[in-house]
From TrEMBL, chain A:
This is Sugar ABC transporter permease. Residues 79-271 form the ABC transmembrane type-1 domain. Signal peptide: none annotated. GO terms for biological process: transmembrane transport. CDD domains: TM_PBP2 (cd06261). It comes from Streptomyces filamentosus (Streptomyces roseosporus). It is a multi-pass membrane protein.
UniProtKB/TrEMBL annotation, chain B:
Keywords: Cell membrane, Membrane, Transmembrane, Transmembrane helix, Transport. Pfam families: BPD_transp_1. It comes from Streptomyces filamentosus. The chain crosses the membrane at residues 49-78, 113-133, 145-166, 194-217, 238-257, 307-325. It is a multi-pass membrane protein. It is found in: Cell membrane. Residues 1-36 have a biased composition (Low complexity). GO terms for biological process: transmembrane transport. This is ABC transporter permease. Residues 108-323 form the ABC transmembrane type-1 domain.
Length: 285, 338
């Protein structure tokens, strides 16, 4: 181990080659990002044709035009709708998934193994099998063009991935803690709320961020369930932009695209450690 | 669910066993009696009650949004249903219509192409970069985060729009291929090549499986490499004889999840291909779910779309079964099971 360690901290030829290799990959991966940021400051007719990454004369027209909104709807409406859905999803997923996970990890109830197997099964189930009947259900309940179809599942723990993530995490907690709580007279609800949940913070944060980002990026759900532009999310607003302006207004479109990604990027920068560790370690213990 | 969201499995046997790691419950789920507890039947009853109380949101969701819809969907698959008139039983007609439909076969072909080319390329990139990054050097965390970022935004409409611009006539990719001496022309307007723009988008998101590969690589004991080096094994030999077998559970997991996700690609294909109609010029990006969407929600053929969904489920189940069957041959779990 010590051999590896001393090697790691010294700049030498190996390290230089390594950085060059990593930077080469980075250049390819980041090219589209840099290109689009530069492009958003180019005049509209220069965006596609020009090979320069950055404009010779930066213009802010593309961003200023966003103030006009899309199809007469201010883009703040779309952002508000997306934010409402994303935050609503986060609350639902955290509550319902941790509830189910607590039962799986900490309570010995009859039928637990069967339910757990079913939960794992839904992890692999293609969502599209449920698409049509769920739509029919919500249509019969007259809930089309409301946010209920997009949120209900989050409050009923249908995202098996997050249940699984939290089960894995709760299993890792020392059993003595909740047993001690039990001896002190704590019921399951108390143990869940005051002992297990606070200790699950890393898993909760990971789930919250993934839920937020997934809800923010979701396209198919809003596409199917929402049909009034005032209720559209950012994704649908962008789609409307594409349908309306087509290739004629690349500048506005990519400026809007960048703005739409800002919340996701902000979350990533703030929480990348939770995201990557949460993804890499769940289950590898 | 989004492709960026993945997790690493413990061996499948473990996944099917809740509470593993805690003292194993005796068969039947009853734990050995313990001092200081109320009489066993009463305690067990209380545990059951608490268990089902905590499970109730999940159970409601499972019945209402998963199991129920699956049963209904299976029924719809054998009916003619337009959402307004009552479903009419038509037996296997949906399936015969589907198999005879040239557009359906196109969608199968496009999806198959996307899965068969895109998934291996993406996993190869993920493994390659993970191997490169798997050194304890300064900056590793930064590269890991930077390579992971596209996985979070890649499925968004925004990136699909950027992709359309990047791969259109005269744009960067077109210029690059001209420099390399290929036929000019963007990929977006070309029905034969637009699928490669979509494949490039999935490969671009190699960061998610890469992070999982990296976690797996970190678990390989250093001593193995040192011993092999002493025995004179070169880097190539060490990769094939140590690295690959040791990370095969992680590889299996990545192959499984990425393949299943690839079958379900929708949003990016819809936006990249949208020029007047959804899913590409001359159906160039008519992936399976795109056609399902068109049949179900544009043509109101709910029965036919359900039948299509079940074919997708069968395909995914088949691929999953084949992968699980094949893992005996190439996936090595460490002795001792964990």
């Amino acid at each position: 181990m010590s051999l590896v360690h001393t090697k790691a901290r010294r700049w030498n030829t190996g390290s230089l080659v390594w950085h060059l290799g990593s930077l080469a990959v980075l250049a390819v991966v980041l090219y589209p990002v840099v290109w689009v940021i530069g492009g958003s400051f180019k005049p509209n007719d220069e965006i596609v044709g020009s090979l320069d990454l950055f404009p010779t004369d930066p213009v802010t027209d593309n961003y200023r035009r966003l103030a006009d909104g899309i199809a007469d709807i201010p883009i703040s409406t779309f952002f508000g709708n997306s934010l409402f859905l994303a935050v609503g999803s986060v609350i639902g997923v955290l509550l319902s998934s941790s509830f189910a996970a607590y039962a799986f990890a900490k309570i010995d109830f009859a039928g637990r193994n069967l339910l757990f197997a079913l939960m794992i099964g839904t992890l692999l189930l293609p969502y599209h099998v449920l698409l049509i009947p769920q739509y029919v259900l919500f249509q019969k309940l007259e809930l089309i063009n409301t946010y209920t179809p997009l949120l209900l599942g989050k409050y009923l723990a249908t995202d098996a991935f997050f249940v699984f993530l939290m089960v894995q995490f709760m299993r890792g907690l020392p059993r003595e803690l909740d047993e001690a709580a039990r001896l002190d007279g704590c019921g399951h609800l108390r143990t869940y709320w005051s002992i297990v949940l606070p200790l699950c913070r890393p898993a909760l944060i990971t789930s919250a961020i993934f839920t937020f980002i997934n809800a923010w990026n979701d396209f198919m759900g809003p596409l199917i369930y929402l049909n009034e532009p005032e209720k559209y999310t950012v994704s649908l607003g962008l789609k409307m932009f594409v349908d309306q302006d087509g290739v004629a207004n690349y500048g506005g479109m990519i400026a809007m695209s960048l703005v739409a990604l800002l919340p996701v990027v902000a979350f990533f920068l703030a929480f990348q450690r939770y995201l990557i560790d949460g993804m890499a370690t769940s289950g590898l213990k | 669910m989004d492709a960026a969201v993945t997790t690493v499995p413990t061996p499948a046997a473990e996944a099917a066993r809740p509470g593993a790691g805690a003292p194993a419950p005796a068969p039947g789920g009853v734990r050995p009696p313990r001092a200081g507890r109320a009489s066993r039947p009463r305690a067990a009853r209380r545990e059951n009650l608490a268990g089902y109380l905590f499970m109730s949101p999940w159970i409601a969701g499972f019945l209402l949004l998963t199991a129920g819809p699956m049963a209904v969907s299976l029924y719809f698959a054998f009916t003619d249903y337009n959402l307004f008139d009552a479903p009419r039983w038509i037996g296997l007609d949906n399936f015969t219509e589907m198999f005879g439909d040239a557009r359906w076969r196109t969608s199968v072909e496009v999806t198959g192409w996307y899965v068969v080319i895109g998934t291996p390329l993406k996993l190869a990139a993920a493994l390659g970069v993970a191997l490169l990054l798997n050194q304890s050097r300064r900056g590793q965390g930064f590269y890991r985060a930077a390579f992971y970022a596209p996985s979070l935004i890649g499925a968004s409409v925004s990136v699909a729009i950027v992709w359309r611009a990047l791969f259109s006539d005269g744009a960067a990719v077109d210029r690059a291929q001209q420099v390399l001496g290929f036929d000019p022309g963007g990929w977006i307007g070309d029905p034969d090549r637009i699928i490669y723009a979509l494949i490039a988008l999935t490969v671009w998101q190699f960061g998610a499986p890469m992070v999982i590969f990296l976690a797996g690589l970190k678990q390989v004991p250093r001593e193995l490499y040192e011993a092999a080096q002493v025995d004179g094994a070169g880097p190539w030999r060490r990769f094939w004889s140590i690295t690959l077998p040791m990370i095969s559970p992680v590889l299996f997991f990545n192959v499984l999840l990425e393949t299943i996700h690839s079958f379900q690609i929708f949003g990016s294909a819809y936006i990249i291909g949208s020029q007047g109609n959804a899913c590409g010029p001359a159906d160039g990006t008519l992936v399976y779910t795109c056609y399902l969407y068109v049949q179900g929600f544009e043509n109101s053929r709910m029965g036919l779309a359900s039948a299509m969904a079940w074919m997708l489920l069968l395909a995914v189940a088949l691929v999953t079964a084949v992968l699980f069957w094949s893992q005996r041959r190439w996936v090595h779990y460490e002795e001792g099971g964990r």
